[in-house]
Amino acid sequence: MAIAKAERLMNLALCLLGTRRPLSKRELRDSIEAYVEASRPERGVASRSEKGAAGSDDSFNRMFERDKDDLRELGLVIETVENLDGEVGYLARRDSNRLPPITLDAEEAAALGLAAKVWQQARLAGAASGALQKLRAAGLPEDVDPYEAHGALEPRIPVHEAAFEPLMLACRDRRPVVFDYRKASAARPEPRHVEPWALECWRGHWYLAGFDRDRGAERVFRLSRITGRVRSRGTGFTAAVPDVVTVRETVASWAGEIADGTALIRLRSGAGYPLRAKAIGVRELGDGWDELEIPYGHGLDAWLVEFGPDVVVVEPAELRADVVDRLRAVAKG
Q: CB 209: neighbour CB atoms within 10 A?
């Protein structure tokens, strides 16, 4: 149904933009197939009956008025003109619907080129390249090469997760989704019903922020932990979308980047250099072990598990329990 409506709106816009004189409702109805279908008498009613004709006219009029309003909301300037016979016609003049000339300086062009290069590994690469070509044709400075390298580092955002594209489209279209998600501390994935808000890349991983309907609260999901296919579930959100979705800050807090205390751990000598870099204090214990005091925030347990047998949590007790639970979940597969 959405595709049919989009095609109908496109056909109406082309008719209004392509005419040199105002077109009446009757002419538009006869020119667009969807309107011809809507104008046919309803089933079970004789095609020549007054009731059938009235019903078909009403269907067309309602559809046409909605489509006209939708096009105006999208920015198309539609004029209503009355001829000498009193018949109302419609047209969209090209000069009224033409975008102003696009002018870009060297810095703006470079920013667009950088953005396009960032997406070269994603499905958006073709769209980004095509957009730059259109900007070039529209007046992008000839002495500026948007693809020119601006340094030794090449910006890239890797998009390897199959869930990225359907979630990106769901965020754009405001469509709820369902997917199976495996938490780091869980042995098996669980279904999640989510109203997706925004996607963001943080430290090489993609995360989705949205409203978890089952839990009735905002949640952040790492795309690499989504298993199976992302499926759409109906339309419309039940929760308001925040004006600003702070995916990066939320993920940072869940990853232990925002600390509200300290933890005491034992670390094997010569191992765990990222932990040593964050340590507030280090004390040699002998027998190949050191004792470190490190910042403690939500999500630190998930990070410590990555170091395996080289780390032993001394305190606090809840952190030690969380690490043990995660290791058991990993052992169960």
A: 22
C-alpha angle 176-182-184 in degrees, rounded to nearest 5:
130
d(CA 138, CA 98): 13
User: Which residue from 18, 93, 7 is spatially nearest to 27, judged by alpha carbons?
Assistant: 18
Which residue, among 66, 70, 57, 71, has the nearest Cα to 29 in the 3D structure?
Answer: 57
Sign of CA dihedral 110, 115, 118, 120: negative
Q: Report the distance separating Cα 228 and Cα 177, nearest Å.
A: 13
> How far is residue 108's CA from residue 105's CA, in Å, rounded to a whole number?
5
- What sign results for the dihedral spanned by CA atoms 257, 260, 262, 265? negative
- Give the pLDDT confidence of 114-139 residue by residue, as tens digits: 666 666 555 555 666 666 666 666 55
89-119 pLDDT, tens digit per residue, is 999 998 888 877 767 777 777 777 666 666 6
Residue 58: count of CB within 10 angstroms of its CB: 13
